[in-house]
Amino acid sequence: MRVGTPRVLWCRTLCIQDIVGLIEKGRKMSDLLQTPLHDLHVKLGAKMVPFAGYSMPVQYKLGVMKEHIHTRTKAGLFDVSHMGQVMVQGDGAAAALEMLIPVDVVGLGQDRQRYGFFTNEAGGITDDLMLANRGDHIFVVVNAACKSADIAHMKANLEPAVQVMPITDRALLALQGPSAEAVLSALDPAAAQMKFMDVATLSLNGAECWVSRSGYTGEDGYEISVPNSQAVALAEALIAHDDVEPIGLGARDSLRLEGGLCLYGHDIDTKTTPVQAGLTWAIQKVRRAGGDRAGGFPGAEIILEEMDAGAARKRVGLHPEGRAPMREGVPLFAAAEGGAEVGVITSGGFGPTVEGPVAMGYLPTDLAKPDTVVYGELRGKRLPLTVVKMPFTPANFKR
Amino acid sequence: MKYTEEHEWLRAEDDIIVVGITEHATTQLGDIVFVELPDVGTVVTKDDEVVVIESVKAASDILAPIDGEIVEVNDALTDNPSLTNEDAIGDGWFFKIKASDPSQMDEYMDEAAYKAMIE
């Protein structure tokens, strides 16, 4: 059995390794950073892999498929402490962030959260993120592989008018799935009062936690920022519940893919604009052409122009016919034979809930309509895929 | 039973060799979600790619361990690829090959040597 050559694997999840991979290849596991939950992962039988500079659990004993299904049917606990947590504080913090992020931060209500992204002068996306208005500061959560660049970017552009403070004394857990509300509200009943994209400070297992009702699986659930020193005890208390299993990065990737959610570095990057990526829903009216605070972010001219004129290509959901997964990098063609490559798959794999292969990728706008059939070239053969609306599995949020 | 360095097992039934992958391999691969088998009657040379397997984490090739003709494939895997996870050395076999040179089997490891390799 020859694994992976020349098709490199694990790409779906480990691909942020594309960015840091070269560094990590020469690096021993012992040089990797560890989250406060590292020893717990090992104790729980996790398979640890390098990811964005950290040693992270890619799966536990259940395996990717069962972990995925468990999260969709009960609840899964994820360690996402490798992600960057940042407080932006000071008068005008929200307005300052609007200089870097094309979303309505000023209008974000207290105790509410919103999706966003940093853009560059070319209109590309340099990272995607979550923003929360926690009263006296904006709490920002960014991707692990991008966090040092994001923090430097914010510091360079926003200080000294506001303070950009990386939070390194807190771990980040995600509890996701239909049982999440019952599990968390047993620790603090206030968890049940939160709606999708609310944030609150909860007391969980004796720890003061900054909690949002959101996640990266397409399921209802919470993300929980907990002091490092109390993180293991909280994780153990959550896993002690019959409905909760620890879930690794492998299932996190298949869950978010079925949920139609972008993975930075794959489905979106500096070469894709928010319009091409189908993320204009995250750019509220007030920041669009004609809005009170239109533009004013990097690449605004390009992005707003593209919103008006339409993008030449679009991110789409793709349903491969048959059972063969089509993964990142598979080239797409308009016809079963001949013609030039018209697009590419940016994420793909097997969807355990869909019980079949699922993918997303970019296609020219005229081929991006649902029900259009295109062809992916796999092992020298062109196999049909149908353009479909995302998510692949219905979102299960508590609105 | 013989074993290859690529984690295939080979079981001789007279001059027919049954080929599958080891439990160790399935553990490494994780849940198998797709298997593409060769056509019966295909004549293969040692090291030809004959089977593609996709797990939740990887695409892998199974190479022909010897020269010969594919005489039977395990069609049950097409609809139920997880058979290989459930019973790697039994119901999860991939194909049977009629060896054109049975002496090619001699180079492969016995169980003790294979166990030593994966430890």
From TrEMBL, chain A:
TM regions (residue ranges): none
A GO cellular-component term linked to this record: glycine cleavage complex
Gene3D superfamilies: Aminomethyltransferase beta-barrel domains, Aminomethyltransferase fragment, Probable tRNA modification gtpase trme, domain 1
Domain of life of the source: Bacteria
SUPFAM superfamilies xrefs: Aminomethyltransferase beta-barrel domain (SSF101790), Folate-binding domain (SSF103025)
The EC number(s) this enzyme carries: 2.1.2.10
Keyword ATP-binding applies: no
Binding-site residues, substrate: 223
Reactions that this protein is recorded to catalyse: N(6)-[(R)-S(8)-aminomethyldihydrolipoyl]-L-lysyl-[protein] + (6S)-5,6,7,8-tetrahydrofolate = N(6)-[(R)-dihydrolipoyl]-L-lysyl-[protein] + (6R)-5,10-methylene-5,6,7,8-tetrahydrofolate + NH4(+)
Residues in GCVT N-terminal domain copies: 37-285
Keywords assigned by UniProt, alphabetized: Aminotransferase, Methyltransferase, Transferase
Top-rank EC class of the record's enzyme: transferase
Pfam families (UniProt xref): GCV_T (PF01571), GCV_T_C (PF08669)
Domain Aminomethyltransferase C-terminal, residue spans: 313-392
GO process terms (BP): glycine catabolic process; methylation
Recorded GO MF terms: aminomethyltransferase activity; methyltransferase activity; transaminase activity
InterPro entries assigned: GcvT, GcvT/YgfZ/DmdA, GcvT/YgfZ_C, GcvT_C, GCVT_N, TrmE/GcvT-like
Family: Belongs to the GcvT family.
NCBIfam families: gcvT, PRK00389.1, PRK13579.1
Protein name (database record): aminomethyltransferase
UniProt source species: Litoreibacter albidus
Phylogenetic placement of the source organism: Bacteria, Pseudomonadati, Pseudomonadota, Alphaproteobacteria, Rhodobacterales
TrEMBL record, chain B:
Keywords per UniProt: Lipoyl
Database matches in CDD domains: GCS_H
Signal peptide: none
Record note on cofactor: Binds 1 lipoyl cofactor covalently.
Lipoyl-binding domain ranges (all copies): 16-98
Protein origin, superkingdom: Bacteria
A single GO BP: glycine decarboxylation via glycine cleavage system
Gene Ontology annotations for the cellular component aspect, listed alphabetically: cytosol; glycine cleavage complex
Pfam families documented for this protein: GCV_H
Modified residues (N6-lipoyllysine): 57
Cofactor or coenzyme needed: (R)-lipoate
Subunit-level organization: The glycine cleavage system is composed of four proteins: P, T, L and H.
Family membership: Belongs to the GcvH family.
Job of this protein: The glycine cleavage system catalyzes the degradation of glycine. The H protein shuttles the methylamine group of glycine from the P protein to the T protein.
Record protein name field: Glycine cleavage system H protein
